[in-house]
């Protein structure tokens, strides 16, 4: 079984991945952004490095997805390949930070990859306001995130809402402005109960 946590930068994906892995005994797959050699350059000059950073993430997540689907384990994953294609790359293109030629090449590569993999059994979307995202980003103190633009986060949030509404498959939403699962055991228990219900109702 493959459970995936989706959400904008700073929404709490890694934290929830760890908590659910511990609660259900699932194998966690974390988003290892620190190993992307283009990330610091990207936040400093997004137009110059957008294609490079996105192709690196696409390759890494495709490799992870193949490993997940061949593992035979119950897995919870921090961010999905579908967010790269459905949100981050088209957002960069729309903002004029990835040119059409690069975007078309990216989409063609993604299409080939999708012919070899399947969707997660359940998507858990962490919905957050931009002020909450900014607070979480500042709290974790990653130096390369200090230059993230507010218009970039706002644009990503709009795309996440659209992507989630149109996503076809088992899915659920957690409003992380109101649900503080990282610090409240009661909130975490509520999340766990919702996940159990979705797994049962979906026949997973």
Give an account of the 3D structure.
The structure is a single chain. With 204 residues, the chain is of the alpha/beta class. Helices cover 58% and strands 12% of the residues. Strands 2-3-1-4-5 form a five-stranded parallel β-sheet, sandwiched between helices. Helix 3 runs antiparallel to helix 4 (81-94).
Summarize the structure.
This protein is α/β, with parallel strands linked by helices.
CATH topology: Rossmann fold
β-strand percent reads 5-15%
Q: What structural class do you assign from the helix and strand content?
A: alpha/beta
CATH second-level architecture: 3-Layer(aba) Sandwich
The gyration radius over C-alpha positions equals 17 Å
- Supply the number of helical segments: 8
For the record, the CATH class is Alpha Beta
Measured as a percent range, the helix fraction is 55-70%
What's the mean pLDDT score?
90
| CATH superfamily (homologous) name | P-loop containing nucleotide triphosphate hydrolases
Number of strands: 5
Give the N-to-C terminal Cα separation.
Answer: 7 Å
Unreliable segments of 5+ consecutive residues: none
In the sheet with the most strands, the strands line up as 2-3-1-4-5
What kind of sheet is the major sheet? 5 strands, parallel
What letter string, H or E per element, gives the SSE order?
Answer: EHEHHEHHEHHEH
């Amino acid at each position: 079984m493959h459970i995936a946590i989706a959400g904008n930068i700073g929404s709490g994906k890694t934290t929830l991945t760890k908590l659910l892995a511990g609660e259900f005994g699932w194998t966690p797959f974390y988003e290892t952004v620190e190993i992307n050699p283009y990330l610091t350059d990207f936040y400093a000059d997004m137009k110059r490095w957008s294609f490079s950073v996105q192709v690196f993430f696409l390759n890494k997540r495709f490799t992870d997805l193949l490993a997940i689907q061949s593992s035979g384990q119950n897995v919870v994953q921090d961010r999905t390949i579908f967010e790269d294609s459905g949100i981050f790359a088209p957002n960069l293109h729309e903002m004029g930070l990835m040119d059409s030629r690069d975007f078309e090449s990216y989409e063609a590569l993604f299409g080939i990859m999708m012919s070899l993999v399947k969707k997660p059994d359940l998507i858990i979307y962490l919905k957050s306001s931009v002020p909450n995202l900014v607070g979480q980003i500042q709290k974790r103190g990653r130096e390369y995130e200090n230059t993230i633009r507010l218009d970039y986060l706002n644009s990503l949030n709009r795309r996440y809402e659209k992507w989630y509404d149109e996503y076809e498959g088992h899915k659920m939403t957690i409003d992380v402005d109101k649900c503080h699962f990282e610090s409240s055991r009661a909130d975490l228990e509520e999340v766990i109960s919702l996940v159990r219900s979705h797994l049962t109702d979906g026949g997973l």
